[in-house]
Amino acid sequence: GCNDSYVYALDTTDGTERWRSPTNDMVSSSPAVVGDTVYVGSRDDNVYALSATDGSKQWSFETGSNVTSAPTPVNETVYVGGFDGNVYALNATDGSRRWRFETQNLLSSSPAVVNGTVFIGSTGGTVYALDATDGTERWSFQTSGSTGVRSSPAVWNDSVYLGDQNGVVYALNSTDGTK
Fold first, then answer.
1. Sign of the torsion angle spanned by Cα atoms 149, 96, 177, 174
2. Are 88 and 80 in contact (CB under 8 A)?
3. What is the C-alpha separation between 129 and 122, in angstroms, rounded?
4. CA dihedral in degrees (75, 108, 160, 166; nearest 10)?
5. 53 near 35, Cβ under 8 Å?
6. Which of 132, 58, 69, 74 is nearest to 86 (CA)?
7. Residues 34-61: pLDDT tens digits?
8. How confident is the model at residue 23 (pLDDT cuts 50, 70, 90)?
9. Neighbour tally for 55: CB within 10 Å
10. Which of 35, 51, 138, 170 is the most buried (most CB within 10 A)?
């Protein structure tokens, strides 16, 4: 993605442009590629599914606010955080909304999805663990920083790792959110 409102695909051998696909605003979200589909968010309030072959739009979903979070596709569902504070689960095939979870803060971190749980941090400093099937909250944890969590969680074994903007790194139990 680029500030010129395009998503680019480059040849891995020589870096030449293979295709470009337009959005209506800057693209600061990292893309995710699964199979023949590229998933990416844009500051035009949309999540896009593009053909990895030629960049043609397969579908788009309007969130109502900037999407700077990188989409996380898992098992036919694409999970993404919107700058409006909502976590979305979208059908990977047609972009229809499966569920939405409303947080109290902006979301710019990208979700991690492990063992049926979606983990995401918010700018208010709250880390959420959501059921990947229906979006219900399993637990939440408030960091000590009021400036928030913009880093994307990493999950390994039974721990969720992330840092807040006060420079504190946390290891949380992935099952119950205890520190």
1. negative
2. yes
3. 12
4. 170
5. no
6. 69
7. 999 999 999 999 999 999 999 999 999 9
8. very high
9. 18
10. 170
Burial label, 56 (beta-carbon count in 10 A; 0-12, 13-18, 19+): exposed
Percent of the chain residues past pLDDT 90, beyond the cut:
80
Closest CA to 174 of 163, 154, 158: 158
Q: Which residues contact 171 (CB under 8 A, 6 or more apart)?
A: 159, 160, 161, 179
C-alpha span between 131 and 120 (Å, rounded): 12
pLDDT attached to residue 147: 67
Q: What is the pLDDT of residues 133-172, one digit of tens each?
A: 999 999 999 988 666 887 899 999 999 999 888 888 999 9
22 vs 102: CA distance, rounded Å: 29
Q: What is the chain's length?
A: 179
Scan for tokens 């959005």, then name that residue: 23
Tokens of 132: 């990947």
